[in-house]
Every structure is written in C-alpha cells, then in structure tokens.
Design goal:
By secondary structure, the chain is mainly alpha-helical. It is 74% helix and 0% strand. The chain has a single domain, classed as TspO/MBR protein (Ferritin, Up-down Bundle).
C-alpha cells in the first residue's frame, strides 16, 4: 500500500482526493475535447501554411537540413495526436498539480497556434522582421513545452514521455526558423 507521500500507480484506478475511478465511458468526451483542440490548432495552422508554402516559402532560402514539405504534415499529425493523449492522461488523473499542468499545456497550444500565421502569413507583409518575431514565439513555445513536460511527468509519466517528441520537433523547427530569419 502506498505511503502518505506516494501517489498510487498510474492506471491503478484510484486518485488522490478522488473516490474511486471514473467510468471509462465518461473519459471519452474528455479525450475528444483534447483531440478537437489539437485538430483545431492543426486546421488553423494548415490554412495559413497552404496559402504560403507554394508562395514565398517555396523560393525562400531554407536550411540544408529542411525536410521535404510532406514530412511536416505527417510529423505534425502524429505530434498533435500524442499531445492530445498526453493532456487527456493528465486531465483524467485529477491529481494535485493537474490544473497548473493543463494551463501550461494551454499556453503552449496558443503559442503553437500563433507561430504559423506569424512565420508564414506575416512574411509577405513584414519581411524578415516576421521571421524574427516567429523565432521569438517558437523559443517561447520551446520553453512552454519544456515546462509542460516537467509538469506532466510527475502526474503521468506516459504523458510526459508523449510530449518529448513534440519538444524535440519544436527545437528542430526553431533551428529551421533561425536559419530562415538569418538568410531571408
């Protein structure tokens, strides 16, 4: 039996301060909300990207390590799914710190949403200044994702681990953004 300082094992059916576990059917709407939020951010970002990926971005000076365009869609699809599942795992635990962790998740989701229109949409208007502004946003995003990982991990180890590929991708995307800002 866990001591007073130990949280019960993940998936054990009990949560500190919550009598019993929620029925699995009642968790499906929560999962759908997190999946829907990820889908909304992805869809809004895609609208801006599609309008510019074959425009100014097609002729932009890109980092030599930039993957083909199709990789971005595949990667982001997997990342948004993992992010949603991670947030859902934290939400369903209702553990101490979950509210703070989910707030951090919301902050990083907003920063994620802001980056695409600034990078792709503002470049035709502001030029290189838009790429530097986008770089500031993506650095803030990397910090927010790091905080989210650190807050998710103690609540649900799986949730923290599910966020690590996203953090890696954001750092990688930061390098692409920095190259673009320095060379366009």
């Amino acid at each position: 039996m866990p001591g007073p300082q130990q949280a019960p094992a993940e998936g054990s059916g009990t949560r500190p301060g919550v009598a019993g576990s929620r029925a699995s059917g009642s968790q499906l709407p929560g999962l759908l909300v997190f999946l829907g939020a990820s889908a909304a951010v992805a869809a809004l970002g895609s609208l801006v990207t599609l309008n510019h990926v074959n425009g100014w971005y097609a002729s932009a000076d890109k980092a030599p390590w930039t993957p083909p365009n199709w990789v971005f869609g595949a990667a982001w699809t997997a990342l948004y799914l993992a992010m949603a599942v991670a947030a859902w795992r934290v939400w369903r635990r209702r553990a101490e710190g979950s509210r703070t962790a989910l707030t951090a998740y919301g902050v990083q989701l907003v920063l994620n949403l802001l980056w695409t229109p600034v990078f792709f949409g503002l470049y035709p208007v502001l030029g290189t200044a838009a790429l530097w502004l986008a770089f500031a946003i993506i650095v803030a995003l990397a910090v927010a994702v790091t905080v989210t990982v650190l807050l998710f991990g103690p609540i649900s180890r799986a949730a923290g681990l599910l966020m690590l590929p996203y953090l890696s991708w954001v750092v990688f995307a930061s390098s692409l953004n920095l190259w673009a800002a320095l060379n366009n």
